[in-house]
Predict the structure.
Amino acid sequence: MNMPLTGKSLTGATVDYGPEAAAMQAYLAQGEQRAFSLGNRGPIRFTADGEVHPDILDAYRRCGFYVFENVLRPEELVDIENDLQNILARLPTERGAELDAQGRPALGVGQKAPTLFWSKPLGDPFGGTSLANGRHPVKMFEPKAADDAPKEVVYLILGSLQFSESALRVYGHPQLLAVAAAVNGDDFVPFNEALFIKEPGRGASVAWHQDGVTHWDSPDWDQGSHGFNFMAQLYGCTPANGVWVVPGSHRLGRADIKAMVAAAGAERLPDAVPIVCKPGDVAITNRQTVHGSFANTSADWRVTVNFGFHRRRSVLGVMGAGVHNAPAVYDAERIHERAKLIGYGINARQQRFPDEAAFAYAPHLAAGETYHWDAAAKASIRDYNLFDLSI
Ligand SMILES: O=C(O)CCC(=O)C(=O)O
């Protein structure tokens, strides 16, 4: 891969949206204007009592997403980029290959849990299929990639904390975990973690969808039932390569995405807005929003360190959705096992950034549990995403 240090393609090579190019350019520009008029961005702010500022929570609840500006430290971005370079270098040379380009055993080979997701360049592997419970009902337009593009690219890596200590340290970020507690309660629990890689001129679409599966028809369903994802940006994200969200759609129940696209006459949903970030910004996105991303025909890389959290009561005793791993009823033991990653993340961060006040995760505090990130802990989290809490 053609990996720069800036998030820009080294060759400057881009492709365009073919017959859709002009309409797409206008849509990107208009969407960006709408995004900046929403009033849902700024640094993470706290009240004098140390609570996440209620204005932030109000705006998040109104829009379904919020952009926290300037969250990650510059040295943290360098760490993430170094991990990313290592991960990209260690990918199999093609789907099914056992070795990377240097002849080493490749990343993902032999994992029991789902790990690498491949797509043809600029493709939409999920849209219009029955994959993931059929939650991506409409296929996105697939622009034509350059003739020299590889047959397939990896655009998504699950269980990403086992491959990147810098991502694990982002997972333990005290201010982000404070937001998780403010939104989902002090006893919040993990969902899953991923790395989304949208390479310039190659990165795949993620077709419009809502993430939740299990709770839509629950009598106590509300806007928080299916949790949220943090989306931390290494290089920032633009209307062309970022995730788009239909603001407020997380409050309206299950959306008829097919009908929305049919009414729009194209995949360019008229009310959607892009999440626009600078490097080090972190978005929070309600999983119930209608959201998706377009094929990345731009010159810019987008790399998202993605990690989600749920309310404990949304997960405990619930039959999982089977989207990210085998379906199972999530009991307290499984939640406890999966939440070890929070303990490791907090400790790994504390070791790297001892000047920060570490987050105290209430369930670990209550149980008197402490976690230490070391070589044994690292070995123990292989395939940890078999225990993802997928609802
Ligand atoms: O990053 C993307 O392009 C898609 C992210 C997404 O759909 C998700 O996290 O649910």
Observations:
- The chain has a mean pLDDT of 94.
